[in-house]
């Protein structure tokens, strides 16, 4: 793991904060800049756990799009 567990958590928290924004994928790219490819699955997993806890409701469609992007973008690095 090139990125610390604390940093993985911070990135996941930041992704939860922007998942309802107007341009979530653009902001997600900025948040994930500098994260090692090997750590993307850890951030995706942490984001998924946090997104479903936010408001006690399932993540909105934008949260699902961020999750899909995290998993797919890692393959393109």
Comma- or semicolon-separated keywords:
0% strand, 77 residues, 4 helices, mainly alpha, single chain
Shape: globular
Strand composition percent: under 5%
State the domain count.
Answer: 1
Order of secondary-structure elements = HHHH
Taking pLDDT < 50 over at least 5 consecutive residues as the criterion, the unreliable ranges are none
Largest sheet: none
Helix content: 55-70%
How far is the first residue's CA from the last residue's CA?
A: 16 Å
- Structural class, from helix and strand content? mainly alpha
Number of strands: 0
Number of helices: 4
Average residue pLDDT: 82
Rg over C-alpha atoms, rounded to the nearest angstrom: 11 Å
Question: Would you write up a description of this structure?
Answer:
The chain is mainly α and 77 residues long. The chain has one domain. 68% of the residues lie in helices and 0% in strands. It has four helices and no strands. The model has no long low-confidence stretch (mean pLDDT 82).
Describe how the helices and strands are arranged.
Blueprint: H1 5-18, H2 24-32, H3 40-53, H4 61-75
Question: Gist?
Answer:
This protein has 77 residues and is mainly alpha-helical.
């Amino acid at each position: 793991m090139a990125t610390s567990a604390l940093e993985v958590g911070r990135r996941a928290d930041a992704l939860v904060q922007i998942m309802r924004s107007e341009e979530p994928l653009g902001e997600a790219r900025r948040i994930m800049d500098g994260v090692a490819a090997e750590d993307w699955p850890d951030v995706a997993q942490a984001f998924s756990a946090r997104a479903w806890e936010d408001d006690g409701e399932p993540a909105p469609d934008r949260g699902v799009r961020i999750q899909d992007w995290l998993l797919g973008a890692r393959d393109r690095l």
